[in-house]
Protein: Exostosin GT47 domain-containing protein
Amino acid sequence: MEKPSIMISRTCCYHHPQLWFAILLSFLLCTLILTHFNYSSSFEPVVFNNVEQEQQQEQDLCHGKYVYIHDLPPRFNRYIIDHCDSLTRGTDKPNMCPYMKNMGFGPRIYSPESPHLFTNNTWYETNQFSLELIFHNKMRNYKCLTNKSWEASAIYVPFYAGLDISRFLWVSNLTVRDASGRDLARWLWSQKEWKRMWGRDHFLISGRISWDFRRQHDTLSGWGSNFRFLPESMNMSMLSVEASSWNNDYAVPYPTSFHPLKELEILEWQRKMRKRKRPHLFTFTGAPRPEMKDSIREKVIEHCRSSQACKFIDCSYGKEKCDNPVNVIMEFGDSVFCLQPPGDSYTRRSIFDSMVAGCVPVFFHPGTAYSQYKWNLPENRTRYSVYIPVRDVKEWDKRNISVEKELMKIPEDEVVALREEVIKLIPSIVYADPRSEIEDAFNLAVKGILERIERVRDEIRNGRDPRIGFADEDHYKYTFN
Ligand SMILES: *[C@@H]1O[C@H](CO)[C@@H](O)[C@H](O)[C@H]1NC(C)=O
Ligand SMILES: *[C@@H]1O[C@H](CO)[C@@H](O)[C@H](O)[C@H]1NC(C)=O
Ligand SMILES: *[C@@H]1O[C@H](CO)[C@@H](O)[C@H](O)[C@H]1NC(C)=O
Ligand SMILES: *[C@@H]1O[C@H](CO)[C@@H](O)[C@H](O)[C@H]1NC(C)=O
Ligand SMILES: *[C@@H]1O[C@H](CO)[C@@H](O)[C@H](O)[C@H]1NC(C)=O
Ligand SMILES: *[C@@H]1O[C@H](CO)[C@@H](O)[C@H](O)[C@H]1NC(C)=O
Structure:
């Protein structure tokens, strides 16, 4: 284990001032004891051992953080990447293969028009569905990996769940649609790692929303697979870009196109976003959904179109406009606020693209961010966002909501403070280069899941039933408050 020791030497003294104080104190005590009592040879080694032992345990900064990566049969991950040309439906691209390049970051962006803004090797054309690959590659570089599964605090299951199900979402034969999930569950159950905690220390990640794995009834009209309702799966935790209302689902940010390697690249970008002139008060990027006439999203589009202060970027025409990350980031960077109504699902990738560009998000539903990204965003939502809660279009009309008026009301100093907070959050919401030391969305997610598993372990130790609050539903997640 070479890597952890490198980390130790770099971070020990900053993170554990108390430890060094404790060691110093025990040496002082020891000296005191030795001078006050007649010298007794039995004293010295005992004291020395205690200190040494304490040092050893505390110096293992990976203690409690070890992760074991399950070595799955290739059909659950590598095979899907090797056959990326078959991933068309269910993703948003005719060919997903280019997006698998560069550890899942996708093709590099080189922007000759703005080379000073989009520096080489920091920006990629990242597709949200490659999050599974990105996460796996980052996990391979995680500082506290172990090959001894008994030593691990958590077991990572590198199943590319979303890419896998994208091949079967429109298959009407439910046996076929559910097959990989069922086979994976069987495989996991038969491993020795399973028995230790019955899977409660296992976790996986999906680049698709978790509802795609939560078909409750075996009817053809039901959406998605039944993966998360299999008994084995119910004992595991799943991270995904949008969590459902079940307690063993956790949300992590959608990947953006920004993947810095060095701290300096983040600082440079933050400086640029602070200085940027923002000619538009607010902006909305998305495609109208004529079939969803009575949706908040349509209301938002209507408002944006009729307001002088709003820039509407219609993604239904000239699609490349919204697909090109350089364009998207530039547009968000031209705006003070970015509207984020719920769409086909509660969440959108655009939340994170806009925040990376220093644009303050405006949310309309608690499920769009507040009940989701708890490991990455501040608990106090007023610090970094504007909240205009509306349950439905009827309420919107009744209250005669004007987004423009609501935003105009916010005093300039508050706007500046909001933007500063958003810019400060950038490192917490991006997936940095796997070789990077930046405390990013990945690190926060691993920290979050380790803490969660430790709590479950505590419950088992204390004789409580680990099933409570695990695979059951929490409707409060989506309640307006
Ligand atoms: C960035 O990459 C482009 C294309 O590969 C290259 O022409 C350019 O010189 C690079 N710029 C820097 C600063 O490395
Ligand atoms: C685990 O084993 C693999 C294959 O033997 C090896 O490449 C890797 O370095 C080992 N990892 C750790 C953390 O020991
Ligand atoms: C669904 O697929 C399975 C496996 O290929 C097959 O055995 C079964 O007959 C199919 N069911 C229907 C209703 O077509
Ligand atoms: C799930 O966990 C419970 C204990 O918490 C255990 O009794 C049960 O057998 C586990 N299910 C599976 C499929 O392993
Ligand atoms: C939340 O943040 C706002 C703005 O920074 C602040 O005024 C408020 O006191 C905070 N609320 C809590 C509960 O900390
Ligand atoms: C609704 O708000 C708009 C713009 O603020 C205003 O012009 C209009 O009179 C209001 N309508 C009602 C019924 O209050």
Summary: The longest helix spans residues 441-461. The chain has three domains: 2-59, 67-254+442-478, 263-429. The chain is about 40% helix and 10% strand. Residues 145-147 surround 2-acetamido-2-deoxy-beta-D-glucopyranose (ligand 2) (CB under 6 Å).
